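[job 0412] stage=fold_complex status=start
inputs:
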Amino acid sequence: MSLLAVSALTVRTAEGRVLVDDLAFDLAAGGRLGIIGESGSGKSVTSLAVTGLLPPALTVDGSVLLDGVQIVGAPERRLVGVRGRVASVVFQEPLTALDPLMRIGRQVAEPIARHRGLRGAALRGAVADALAEVALDDARITRAYPHELSGGQRQRAAIAIALASRPRLLIADEPTTALDVTVQAQILRLLDDLVEARGMALLFISHDLAVVSAMTSDVVVMRSGVAVERGTVAGMLAAPTDPYTAELVRSARSLDDRLGRR
Amino acid sequence: MILELRDVSYRYRKGALAVDGVSLGVAAGQSVGLVGESGSGKSTILKLMLGLARPGSGTVLFDGEELSLPAPRRFRAAVQTVFQDPYSSLDPRQRVASIVAEPLRSLGIARGDQARALVAASLASVGLDADTLDRYPHEFSGGQRQRIAIARATVCHPRLLLADEPVSALDVTTRIQVIDLLAELRASQGLSILMVSHDLSAVAALCEQTVVLHRGRVVESGATAQILSAPREEYTRRLVEAVPRLPAV
Amino acid sequence: MTAAIVLEPQAPARRRRHSWTLILGLVLVGAVAATALLSLVWLPYPPDDTTGGRLEEPSWQHLLGTDKLGRDLATQVMIGARIALTVGLGSVVVGALIGITIGLLAAFATPWLDDTISAGLDVVIAFPVLLLAMLIVAAQGASLVSVMVAIGLAMSAVVARLTRVLTKRVLGEQYVTAARTSGTRWPGIVARHIMPNIWPTLSVNLALQFGVAVLAEASLSYLGLGAPPPNASWGRLLQEAQGTFVTAPVGAIAPGLALIALVLGVNFVADGLRDIADPARRRSR
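[job 0412] stage=fold_complex status=done
writing structure:
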């Protein structure tokens, strides 16, 4: 059984505008899937739908089975049991994903305390370990507030928080788009290592073909809420079947070529 | 040199140095890319080059003479800008015709029907047709808004275009179109370009020269091709290697 | 990106729910305005005609009855409408002119000057509007103009604070920087870019202040500090009707209801304006 099985997923706004149209894909435990799409493609809506985080004004039809639990239409109680334990999300903008009024240490401690039931010294130790895992070794970071850290450090903290509950699936929605390019390279490597080491499944969402191809080998290309192409990264780059995908690959190649030989 | 910074420094109000002894310039016919990550000082340098701030030390030179502030009309007519965020750089309460005509109005170049004709011509040069004139910015996509911004920047036929991350906020498919548009305008209007960007591929596509900034200082500068293939400095090398590349096919 | 999706579905639903209040508000304000305009050309009785019996009940000759001096109450209420609207508008004009000017100055000022102005505004805001207005009226003597100036001055601090915040936000937008690099000088930027962009929010606030001004005037008149007779403000009618409220309640109910109608109506209109003013334009992505 797949860890994540999405079928006939359709998301509509209150006025009837379709954001995601009959989407289906599977992700096995430990597997990796990339979702490529530009703005308005519905890729972020999909990531929110998978964890039941869509606002109530949107109507969701279809099926999302996360570790066998139906997410669509699920009551908050059931969703809470699944979030963190089965799937965690790392978002694009670390500044808004972290609570600005809470110290980093405490934000990392929250999911650890809730999911692993640790307290006191054991909890503190676990927090230090979690931060060390994302290379935030400096002891001062535990007591720092988000605005005191750099963008890269904040995203590492966000990753630590996401992984603290030991999820089986990590959803990364444009995790490095807001970061500098040198920092992006480090964060991507970090994500890759952690996902590998823990045997987690990875759903990686981005508009950047190069980044997605570095992180996953299978992709789904979305446009205006529809999956227009699916397959391996290599296949998509070499011989895209859909015209939109072809244009996407062409534009990306055009820019990539200007950088000279690899 | 049309516009030049000579040994310029700038301090934030809190005391830290945003720009430290930077010298760079754009000569007629050149296209220069200014590459830097956050904290590199590129935004401050752009502000100084636009005459929106005074350097703490060093000089800003326009056509070889020190630039006096507030900047004179001929500077504004010669040096125009395209900004990063297409959703914020157009006044939401004005129609496109009025937005693009602003430089003509404020610089006393043209008004009324004459201005409208120039605006229509400028919009045509960026690939937008006449019915764009009476619409509002919110009716257009990001890529189209950026074209409107370019139309505004080129309507008074400046000699130098300063572009601040002009394609960063755009979709991948639109990015290459806007870059190509800038390259085309450069050829057809003899426009010199200075593009500030963190995106090396955009710079590589448009600029023959590149200046690399790090923590307020110029780390390396030279021909773009050279910097990409054989960077001399450590930071430049890290920067080039960090750019995500498509796997070769 | 997702935030843009979240905001949109709610706007139309809100618009539907509020449109009936906007219409109701317009009807109420319209009724009061019509009454005021009518009072300029026709009144049931001359204002100081005391021939009606004292404290008479509503009848066909006196639709709302008479007050304790024998004056027709309906006439008084109609004149009161004129006064309420005049003082309301006048105060808002004074408050807006002073407040917007100070607000713009503060937004453009150096940090030190800005802090000083803001502190000064905070002090003024901390004063109850009524107390401030009372001080000014006591110093200048009671008249329609002094009441308008007093309320307007008290209100100007709130308007200034709002103007300052809105202006600062607009100053941070790239289109202002774009205007500067297009060669537009600051006065042009204020006129063409700042005012049109802050006006939607500001005008809603001014509409609400109108309601506050009407209530402030009524309170001042109630306390005896408003325009003196024969300018019969609703507040003064209320004060006069106090003693005879039990035996002749209409004397208090009529001006009371008129006040409620106007202020409620204005608030509904302001709410409706708020919904119309910006959501249509906020479709950014």
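[job 0412] summary: The domain at 4-258 of chain A is CATH 3.40.50.300 (Rossmann fold).
[job 0412] exit 0
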